């Protein structure tokens, strides 16, 4: 199965498209002090590899960010991709928006969409059974994300979350 990955900066005409099947082959976006938005969009395989490909793509989109944020975002991307495969239909698509601002800090939005599901899923994380080996995905997303939502339908499902990190205070100037 071929994957299509696109990354773009918020400048017109700055789009990179890859069809290699490896989201890691796209160059990492550069984050500048002046701020901006970088978006990575990739098709996920409809299968057991969806979570792995999602983790790799999130790592590419967040290259150079702090380890804690990267770990949380990779786990969330993996969980959302797993849920889309387990509960939805193809196509599965991952979108990672990275917004940087010297004032607001770093904001990461992760969205996974799928082709819909015949049984509408709950919009709040159900408590997993104590002995269950699955069913914790939305609980994990709820615990790690600053905001999240799940919209389900027979023609499409969208799981979205936001992670925020405040801008580091500027060092005092020495004049």
Automatic annotation (TrEMBL):
Residue ranges constituting the Histidine kinase/HSP90-like ATPase domain according to the UniProt record: 51-159
Gene3D superfamilies on file: Histidine kinase-like ATPase, C-terminal domain
Pfam families assigned to the protein according to its UniProt record, in alphabetical order: HATPase_c_2
Region (Disordered): 1-37
UniProt keyword annotations, A-Z: ATP-binding, Kinase, Nucleotide-binding, Serine/threonine-protein kinase, Transferase
GO molecular function per UniProt: ATP binding
InterPro entries for this protein: Anti-sigma-factor_SerPK (IPR050267), HATPase_C_sf (IPR036890), HATPase_dom (IPR003594)
This protein's name: ATP-binding protein
Lineage of producing organism: Bacteria, Bacillati, Actinomycetota, Actinomycetes, Kitasatosporales
